[in-house]
Amino acid sequence: MKAIVITEYGGPDVLKVKDLPTPEISGDEVLIEVKAAGLNRSDVFQREGNYPAPKGASAEIPGLELAGTVVKCGPDVKDFTVGDKVCALLAGGGYAEYVGVREGQCLPIPGDLSFAEAASLPETVFTVWSNVFERGNLKSGETLLIHGGNSGIGITGIQIAHALGSKVIITVGSDEKGQNCLELGADSYINYKTQDFETELQDEGVDVILDMIGGDYLAKNINILNPEGRLVHINAVSGSRVDLDIWKVMTKRLTVTGSTLRSREYEFKKQLAKEIQKNVWPLIESGKFRTVIYKTFPFSEAAEAHRLLEDGSHTGKIILVR
Ligand SMILES: NC(=O)c1ccc[n+]([C@@H]2O[C@H](COP(=O)([O-])OP(=O)(O)OC[C@H]3O[C@@H](n4cnc5c(N)ncnc54)[C@H](OP(=O)(O)O)[C@@H]3O)[C@@H](O)[C@H]2O)c1
Questions:
Q1: Segment holding 179, helix H or strand E
Q2: Cβ(14) – ligand 1 distance below 6 Å
Q3: Which of 64, 169, 196, 212 to mutate to test the pocket of ligand 1 (most atoms within 8 A of CB)?
Q4: How far is CA 12 from CA 40, 45, 93, 135, 316, in A?
Q5: Nearest to 15 by CA among 55, 44, 41, 52
Q6: What percent of the chain is modeled with pLDDT above 70?
Q7: Nearest to 100 by CA among 37, 32, 36, 34
Q8: Mean predicted confidence (pLDDT) in 296-312
Q9: Helix/strand/coil (H, E, C) string of 118-135?
Q10: In this predicted structure, what is the pLDDT of residue 308?
Q11: ∠78-91-72 over CA atoms, to 5°?
């Protein structure tokens, strides 16, 4: 099969097409003929050598999510059959013609979504459901702040939280991106390049924060959280070593937490997939949550697709298709 591989760590041009053996499957794995694969920021970190693949995942082929057709089932597969159209969460390996993955990480494609639309879902939906709704325990009527509202994670978080009855405030790097997010259901935006989110939100307060920035955002996040508030970290691009005022955490009874999805065990992902099928797939089927595709590229143009992702001017997902 053909796959896009990281030939060495570096810029987008290190991504090249290579012939590799088609994966062998066994047990509860399905073999998927990949029709579309979603790009994520983590693919860039991996390509640069800053985000090693966890044990058992492809270090050579990037790609955390895909959509395609099941072409073969292992002897223990119960929920899927050959011909099923699925999307899947991966720990790597998605930029390929075929991928073998355990069935618990697959979901049927919801509604009448195309393969490209379905491939845009797994990584962000699994991350948002796990961190905002499970770890952060966001409830209807509460206020959620998402840093990086225009990110792939952000546009998913905005839509699900809005559909489930929360007020959603986001930080973004331009007014144009802010407007795009308002159209997706955000109630208001703060342009982090011209405004200070702590100043803007200190009177209003927020209940849950999804943060991928870290660094000096920590103290500000702590200051604007309401009593019993929850701060959930999914990255720390501005730095992970920070000063924390424990006294403020205690007096406001805050929860400071975070997680990484990619390295989690299979049983966790399988259970999360079930929760998503129950809670999020109906929002897609009823039109309350829509996929946002910015641009698609053929797999052979993965380097070009990475350049666009790094440029950062987009709102929505970038997808490789065949
Ligand atoms: N822990 C996990 O399990 C997990 C899973 C998936 C993703 N992630 C992380 O989540 C993040 C988003 O991933 P993605 O693929 O959706 O990324 P992405 O689409 O590339 O977006 C990155 C975002 O960061 C925003 N940003 C940069 N500096 C900022 C600042 N100072 N304040 C507020 N926002 C800022 C950018 O906002 P503007 O474009 O508006 O400037 C952009 O929207 C990444 O850091 C990724 O590693 C973590």
A1: helix 175-184
A2: no
A3: 212
A4: 13, 11, 17, 34, 20
A5: 44
A6: 100
A7: 32
A8: 97
A9: HHCCHHHHHHHHHHHHHH
A10: 98
A11: 35
Architecture in CATH for domain 2-121+262-321: Alpha-Beta Complex (3.90)
Closest atom of ligand 1 to 192 CA is 32
- Could you read off the pLDDT of 94-129 as tens digits, one per residue? 999 999 999 999 999 999 999 999 999 999 999 999
Q: Once rounded to an integer, what is the mean pLDDT over residues 18-26?
A: 97
Tracing tokens 């990584």 back to the chain, one arrives at 123
pLDDT of 56 reads 87
Q: Which CATH superfamily, name and number, covers 125-258? A: NAD(P)-binding Rossmann-like Domain (3.40.50.720)
CA of residue 41 to ligand 1 center, whole Å? 7
Report how far apart, in Å, the C-alpha atoms of 177 and of each of 172, 236, 283 are: 7, 21, 23
Per-domain boundaries in the chain: 2-121+262-321, 125-258
The residue among 253, 181, 187 whose CA lies nearest residue 222 is: 253
Calculate the average pLDDT of the chain: 97
For the entire predicted model, the pTM comes to 0.97
Residue 49: how many CB atoms within 10 A of its CB? 12
Q: Distance, CA 151 to ligand 1 centroid (Å)?
A: 5
Please indicate whether residue 150, judged by its CB atom, sits closer than 6 Å to ligand 1.
yes
